[in-house]
Specification:
alpha/beta; eight-stranded mixed sheet
Length: about 250
Amino acid sequence: MKKQLNTDLIKRFSRQVVLKDIGTLGQKKILSSKVLVVGAGGLGCPVAEFLTRAGIGTIGIIDNDKVSLSNLHRQSLYETPDIGKSKVLIVKKKLNKINPNTKVKTYNFRLNNINFKKIILDYDYVADGSDNFKTKFLLNDFCYKYKKFLFTGAISKFDGHIFSFDFKKRKLPCLRCFYQEDIPSDDLLDCESEGVLGTVANITGSIQANEILKKILNIGKKLNGFILILNFLTLNFRKVKINKKKNCMCNK
C-alpha cells in the first residue's frame, strides 16, 4: 500500500522528488518499503541512516551487541556516551531523531534459523551488514527460499565488497556460488585482526543503501550476478561476474 505525500513530506524529500527518476510516485514507493538491516555495525549504521533519511517506511535492525570504544571510529550512529549500551536501542533513538516518519523495529538477539524465519516475511529487502560467514549464508539461504532481495556487504582493510541478489529470478547465482570452496561456519569477517579504515565502512554501507533505493525505484543498472569490488587505497573499482556453481542450492 503506497503512502500519501503531505506538505511536510514533500518538503522533507524535495531534493529527491525533483529527480525525474524518482518524482512523487517514486517517493511513495520508498515510503511504502520495508527493509531489514542485519548488523548495526560499520555497514549497518550508514545503511540504516541513509535509508531513513531517504524516507523508507519501515526499518528493522537486528543486533545483540553493545557499543564498545573500538566501534566509534567507523560505526557512525554511536558516540562516546553510548559505550556499554545496546546498539539497537541507540540506533532506534538516533533514527527517530533523523526522521520520525520511519518506523524502526529492533531485534536484540543473534540471528538464527528459528527467529529469522519468524520475521523475514515482514520485510521486502534485506541488507546484510554481518561480520561472519555463518550469518551471511543464513541470510542467503532464507532470502533465496522466500524470494527476497538481498544486499550483502563486506569490508576489510581498505577494501569493500558489495553483492545484490534478486532471488525472484531463479537463474541468477547466489552468495554460495561466489565462494567456490566451503567456508568454515565460524570464520569471522571482523575487523579486529585485519583492521579497516573507518571511511571504507561508511562508503561501502552507503553504496549498499544506494543499491537498495535503486531496486525499490527500479532505476539504473543492478549488480545482480556481479560483485562490486572497491579498493579505496588504489581507487581500483571493478565489477566481476559471479558464475553459478554446479552443485549449489540455487540450481536445485
